[in-house]
Specification:
two-stranded antiparallel ribbon; 11 helices; 2 strands; flat
Length: about 270
């Protein structure tokens, strides 16, 4: 399961999506996520699905690798679907004991499942095609106007970059600790919920110690190199827009227009 988490990982490939400016990928990902919460019909989500498939295809990231990252949210997705199925009031379709599955609940559960799946996949495309350094530079550049109101933009971007870097490192560390505990006859599977929670203590304690030790080593290394934040710092690779970046913006705007108009036009026919 830990190996299925793709958040924070970078998949190296030579694609047009990889070559886009990180500001474009950040901005378009935010717009795509917003569109998922605004769209509320089948045709709008069909357009979103076609757009997402096109982006994944252009990114040259294997679809199997992309779907592998979805396994980590199956439990959350199942809970969300079940709660909406049984707790949404409306016209009953199926009665199970004292619970009822309503027509409105089925519709809401399907929409939320599709929305959450598209959201995770859309965000994964950005993280898989953008290195943490590029994300840091892009986020810092986008938030640069906030410096006028004394917002520590560089520090915020740096913290996000470090957090993304730590995710795969901590996953690898967790995997090593789990294998070491299993070799000592630890049992993480059997027993009731309370017993399973107690069995995680030998896993979580060394993981937290390792995380704090790594964070302390990183802080000491930055301090030893006289790191002082973003003031008067230059970039080895300054960001600048190219023709493909403007084309990407135009394609996203077209997607938004088609997605919002598709359902309304078809309902009007």
């Amino acid at each position: 399961m830990l190996r299925d988490i793709t958040l924070g990982q970078y998949y190296q490939a030579d694609s047009v999506i990889h070559r886009l400016d990180p500001r474009v990928k950040l901005g378009t990902t935010i717009l795509f996520i917003i569109s998922l919460f605004v769209l509320d019909d089948f045709w709008g989500y069909a357009v979103a699905a076609l757009f997402l498939v096109l982006v994944v295809k252009l990114s040259k990231v294997p679809f199997r690798f992309m779907v592998k990252g979805m396994k980590s949210i199956v439990f959350l997705l199942s809970i969300t679907v079940l709660f909406n199925l049984f707790l949404t009031p409306g016209e009953p379709v199926v009665n199970i004991w004292k619970l009822s599955i309503t027509k409105e609940g089925v519709r809401l559960a399907v929409l939320l499942a599709v929305r959450l799946g598209f959201l995770i996949m859309g965000s994964s495309v950005m993280t898989l095609t953008t290195t943490p350094n590029q994300l840091t530079d892009g986020l810092e550049k986008m938030l640069k106007p906030l410096r006028k109101v004394k917002v520590p933009v560089h520090e915020i971007a740096m913290m996000m970059s470090i957090a993304l870097r730590f995710i795969p490192i901590l996953m690898e560390e967790t995997d090593k600790i789990m294998k070491a505990q299993l070799a000592r006859c630890a049992d993480f599977e059997s027993g009731n919920l309370i017993k399973k929670a107690k069995s995680l203590v030998p896993l979580l304690v060394p993981l937290f110690i390792s995380a704090f030790r790594r964070a302390n080593d990183l802080a000491m290394a930055m301090e030893a190199r006289c790191y002082r934040g973003g003031e008067h710092r230059t970039k080895m690779k300054p960001l600048h827009y190219e023709k493909r970046d403007y084309i990407a913006y135009i394609i996203v705007v077209c997607y938004l227009v088609v997605g919002f108009a598709a359902g309304r036009l078809i309902r009007g026919l």
